[in-house]
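Q: What would this chain look like folded?
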Amino acid sequence: MIVRHAAVLSALTLLIGGVGCHRPVLENEADPQTLLPRLAKAATPAQQLAILDGLSTVHPDGNSEEQALLVRSVRPYLASAEPTVAAKAGDLLAHWGDRLATAGLVKLLESPEPLIRLSAAASLATPADPGATAALIRSTEDRDPNVRAAASTALGTLKVAGSAVALRARLADADGAVRAAAAAALGRAGSSADAPALLQRLQDPEPGVVSAAARSLGDLGGDDAVETLIALLDDRRQPVRCAAAAALGKIRNVAAVAPLLRVLPEADLAERIAVLNALRALRDPAALPAVAAVAAQGNPLLVKRLPFVLAALYRPAARQHFIGYLEDPNPHVRGAVAHALGVAAVGDATPLLEQMLRDPDPRARQGATEGLALLCTAGCATLLRPMAGADPDPDVREAATNALAIGTSGGVGTAARLLGALADADESVRFAAVEKLGYLGDGSAVPRLQRIAARDGDPLVRLGARLAILRIANPDV
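A: My prediction, written as structure tokens:
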């Protein structure tokens, strides 16, 4: 069973809340069969708004009939004379993917109320309807900076040719939040032609603008920015250093490896995660000793991430050097490397991991079970079953139980095996699988994770799936 720490559940809810159409994630979803009849009978705008707000927790993912019913029932309220009701209806319809709501949301962009215009601009980002492009470009010149920023963000989501001109203009906006939104949007909707303008914004006095520009330079690629981004690794502002590391990982120029290794030992947690992810993306085995040194520290907030970083550094030609860390005096290192061999699907490492099941330290034994879960054949069950039932350490017993389920899920390959485990009856196994999929970062897993996030019977598994989706989109989460 999953241990349900209230603090963990609250933290996940806070982290995930607000992602996607600025909607909160709640534990108990509303029942549309109850709310829709009440909505039809609601006599006042206040009543309508309250019920529409209740529908914010409905996730019709994968249920086309329910989604169609919701859209049909809510769409009339987009034409409400009460702007707050219309804006809320538009928010819901956008989240449910109703592109027929675009015209109504565009009309709301002309509201005299800045909050209504802001809501409409933010909502138009979700269905990504190119038909909203012209209106959003006009809104990048709105008199309210929040609207300009939301419109810029939406244009980045639409990724329509021609919007980059409007976004480049906003890089010179008087408001720092607008400049940051425009810089971030250019990373999604721009091209290499926008790199010079983004490079200029690396000198912006606002750290949020510098960070957004750095990340967008990483998204657009190109080696011209590498030298400047390397210099930003020494910036006094932590968000800027994190953004520079993330961008260098995306550009994947090996010239960044040595500077990243230089800053890794003294980096704080957020920066360390960004640097580790960059080194993972760069896949240079020269980073192995430094990453192993981080593993040796046993930071509980990095333990689950490090095997996936180490796996990216594995090279068959340097196999002996890599597996030599299985004899490291530090059990954290032994465990992380053992798990990494499974992530990297190093099949001939199975006998070595079997030997590690007898390691005197539970951290090493747990890593061996985690690795075997991803390499295991039918014969491994005879090794893991005793660990699941009799190991003196409870964490090892749970890891071995999960490993048995994951290892026999029928999938071939790390991602396929973890996806297979999502159908397990035990919520602890499903939680372990979604967590690993998030760290694995395989985008092909997102559709399945979205279904788990919407439909799994366990609230912590649903939250874990949503966090995994966020990690796949942004490994620094």
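The chain is about 65% helix and 0% strand.
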